[in-house]
Design goal:
Blueprint: H1 12-18, E1 41-42, E2 49-50, E3 54-56, H2 61-70, E4 75-78, E5 93-96, E6 103-107, E7 110-114, H3 119-128, E8 131-132, H4 144-149, E9 166-172, E10 178-182, H5 187-192, E11 201-208, E12 210-211, E13 214-223, H6 224-234, E14 240-246, E15 251-260, H7 273-285, H8 290-299, E16 304-309, H9 310-314, E17 322-330, H10 334-347, E18 356-361, E19 376-384, H11 390-402, E20 406-407, H12 417-423, H13 427-437, H14 446-452
Parallel strand pairs: 3-5, 4-5
Antiparallel strand pairs: 1-2, 6-7, 7-11, 8-12, 9-10, 9-11, 13-15, 13-16, 14-15, 14-18, 17-19, 17-20, 18-19
Helix pairs in contact: 10-11
The structure holds flavin-adenine dinucleotide (FAD).
Flavin-adenine dinucleotide (FAD) is lined by residues 44, 76-83, 87-88, 97, 115, 137-139, 142-143, 145-147, 149-150, 152-153, 196-197, 201-202, 318, 408, 410.
Length: 453
C-alpha cells in the first residue's frame, strides 16, 4: 500500500498521535497493542472491536481517493467511535478523516467543515467567529460526519437533530467519484444527511449556523411522577427540556436550557464522574442496594444553574462508560412508553443504576432520520459497561417497539431490514439511493448487511 498514512497495528497509537487525534479522544477509546491478538480499533464503550487489514488516515482528498480505489473488500469510515452498534467494524479497510479536519469555507452563516472535524472543535471555532450550532447533543467528541450518519440529536421540541441542520455535503463514492449534494439533489441529499455511512465517505458538510448565543442551564431534582408531569406540560415552554428518570428510586433529575443575555460565565460544572463510577461499581456488586442508591444520588444534585456560551453548556464530560439502547417514539406517546418501561424494571427487579434519559426532538425530512416527518420523544436506556446489558435491554426493547419506536442507528438494537422498513416510511427511498450509489455493496459490513441487505 503506497499511502504514507497506511499503518499497521503496532503503529496505531503513534499514527493517531501524529494525526492529532489522541488529545481529542475519550478515555477508554483506544486499545494499546498488547501482542498479536490486540484489536486495532474499538469504540468508546469497548463493546465493538475491529482488526482491519488497513487502518488509514488520509491527509488530503487525493490520498483518500487513491485509498478507496486501491482498497478491496468492505470499506468503512469511523469518526469519534462513539457509536455502540456495529456500524463501524470491518476486517478490510477502516478510514478516519481526522487528519483532514477543520473549517473549509465560510459564507455568512453557512460553514463548511471537513467531515472528520470533531463537534467540540467546530462549535468552539464557530463561536469564535460569532456563530453557534442550532442545537447539539450532550457530548461533543463525535465527528461531524459520524454524528450526522446516525441523526445525532440534543433536546428541544422545535429543534432538529444535527442531520436536519445540514445544507450541503460532499460524498466520495466507493468508486472514488465525488458528489456534491444539496437540497436540489432530492433523495440523494436527503439520504446522505443520515446514511449510517452506507453511501460512501462524507468528506465535507455545510451547516447553517445561528448567530452565537449563550445558554443558561437549570438542573434540579423532582420525584419521578412530578418530573414526568412537569416535562410533559412544559415541553413547549423551554428551548431545551429533558430529564433523567431513576425508575427504581422513583426520582428524577430535570434539566432545562434557555438562551440568556447574561454575559457572566459560571464556574465550571462540578465533575461527578468519580462519584458516579463508584456508585455504578457498588450497584453492580450489590443489586439490592440499587433502588436506595438511585434515591441517594439525587440528594447530591443541587438545584443549580450554569451559564456560558452555547457550546460550553451543551458539552458534558462523560467518562463513566456504559452501553446504550435508544428508540424514538412519537412525541405524544413518550410518557406512556416511559411509564411502562419503569413498571417493567420495577416488577422484574432489574438491576440497572443508570437513569433513563428522556428528550424531545423536532421532526425533519431526512430519509432515515428517527425524526422523519414525526416529532419524537427519545428514550435512552443505559447499562454500566462492565455489567451485562441484555437483562435490561431485552425486556425493554419490545415496549419501545410496541410504541412504534425507531432505533437510534448508533445505539444497540436488534432490528433487521424488514422491521426497519415498517418503521421508517422512507426506507425504500433510501435503499434505492444506496443501491444506485454503492451498487456492489462495498460499504456494507455485517451490521449494515443486517440493516439493508
Ligand atoms: C458518551 C456518549 C454520549 C452520546 N450522546 C449522544 C447524544 O446526546 N445524542 C445522540 O443522538 N447520540 C449520542 N451518542 C451517540 C453518538 O452521538 C452517535 O453514535 C454518533 O454517530 C457518534 O459519532 P462518531 O463521530 O463517534 O461516529 P462513529 O461512531 O465513529 O461512526 C458512526 C457512523 O458514522 C459513519 N461515519 C463516520 N465518519 C464518516 C464519514 N466521514 N463518512 C461517512 N460515514 C462516516 C460510520 O461509518 C458509522 O456508520 C452518544 C454516545 C456516547 C458514547
Amino acid at each position: 500500500m503506497a499511502l504514507l498514512n497506511s499503518i499497521d497495528r503496532r503503529g496505531f497509537l503513534k499514527a493517531l498521535g501524529s494525526a492529532g487525534a489522541v488529545g481529542a479522544l475519550a478515555p477508554g477509546q483506544l486499545l494499546a497493542e498488547s501482542g498479536e491478538t490486540a484489536a486495532a480499533w474499538q469504540n468508546w464503550s469497548g463493546n465493538q472491536k475491529a482488526n482491519p487489514n488497513q487502518l488509514l488516515f488520509p491527509r488530503q482528498e487525493s490520498e483518500l481517493r487513491q485509498a478507496i480505489v486501491d482498497s478491496v473488500g468492505t470499506l468503512r469510515a469511523f469518526g469519534g467511535s462513539h457509536s455502540f452498534s456495529g456500524v463501524v467494524p470491518t476486517d478490510d479497510t477502516l478510514i478516519s478523516l481526522e487528519a483532514m479536519a477543520g473549517l473549509r469555507q465560510q459564507q455568512g452563516e453557512l460553514f463548511t467543515w471537513g467531515g472528520g472535524t470533531r463537534l467540540a472543535m467546530a462549535s468552539a471555532q464557530a463561536h469564535g467567529q460569532g456563530f453557534s450550532f442550532l442545537n447539539e447533543p450532550d457530548i461533543n467528541l463525535q465527528s461531524l460526519a459520524g454524528a450526522i450518519a446516525t441523526s445525532t440529536h440534543g433536546t428541544g421540541t422545535k429543534l432538529t437533530s444535527l442531520s436536519g441542520q445540514v445544507e450541503a455535503l460532499t460524498l466520495m463514492l466507493p468508486d472514488g467519484e465525488s458528489l456534491k449534494l444539496d437540497r436540489n439533489d432530492g433523495d440523494r441529499f436527503l439520504a446522505a444527511c443520515c446514511s449510517v455511512g452506507a453511501l460512501g465517505i462524507v468528506t465535507d458538510i455545510t451547516f447553517r449556523h445561528q448567530p452565537a448565543y449563550r445558554l443558561k442551564e437549570h438542573t434540579w431534582t423532582l420525584p419521578l411522577r412530578e418530573a414526568m408531569d412537569f416535562v410533559e406540560k412544559e415541553k413547549d415552554n423551554f428551548r431545551h427540556i429533558e430529564f433523567f428518570a431513576f425508575p427504581l428510586g422513583e426520582q428524577a433529575i430535570v434539566k432545562t436550557m434557555e438562551i440568556t443575555d447574561d454575559p457572566h460565565d459560571s464556574a465550571p460544572r462540578a465533575d461527578d464522574n468519580d462519584l458516579l463510577e463508584t456508585i455504578c461499581k457498588i450497584a453492580m456488586h450489590a443489586g439490592w442496594l440499587t433502588p436506595s442508591l438511585q434515591k441517594l444520588v439525587t440528594l447530591f444534585v443541587e438545584d443549580s444553574t450554569f451559564t456560558a456560551p452555547s457550546h460550553v453548556v451543551y458539552g458534558n464530560r462523560r467518562t463513566v462508560r456504559f452501553n446504550e439502547m435508544e428508540y424514538t417514539v412519537p412525541a405524544d406517546d413518550g410518557m406512556a412508553c416511559l411509564e411502562e418501561i419503569c413498571e417493567t424494571l420495577r416488577k422484574e427487579d432489574i438491576n440497572v443504576f443508570f437513569p433513563i434519559e428522556f428528550r424531545y426532538v423536532g421532526r425533519d425530512d431526512r430519509l432515515l432520520s428517527m425524526f422523519h416527518e414525526r416529532d419524537g420523544a427519545s428514550l435512552s436506556i443505559h447499562q454500566y459497561f462492565a455489567q451485562d446489558h441484555e437483562p435490561v435491554f431485552k425486556p425493554v426493547e419490545p415496549i419501545l417497539r410496541k410504541y412504534r419506536g425507531r432505533p437510534h442507528w448508533g445505539k444497540l438494537h436488534n432490528l433487521g431490514r424488514q422491521e426497519l422498513a415498517e418503521l421508517y416510511p422512507a426506507f425504500d427511498r433510501f435503499q434505492a439511493v444506496r443501491r444506485e450509489l454503492d451498487p456492489q455493496g462495498r460499504m456494507l459490513n455485517p451490521h449494515l448487511m443486517q440493516l439493508f441487505a
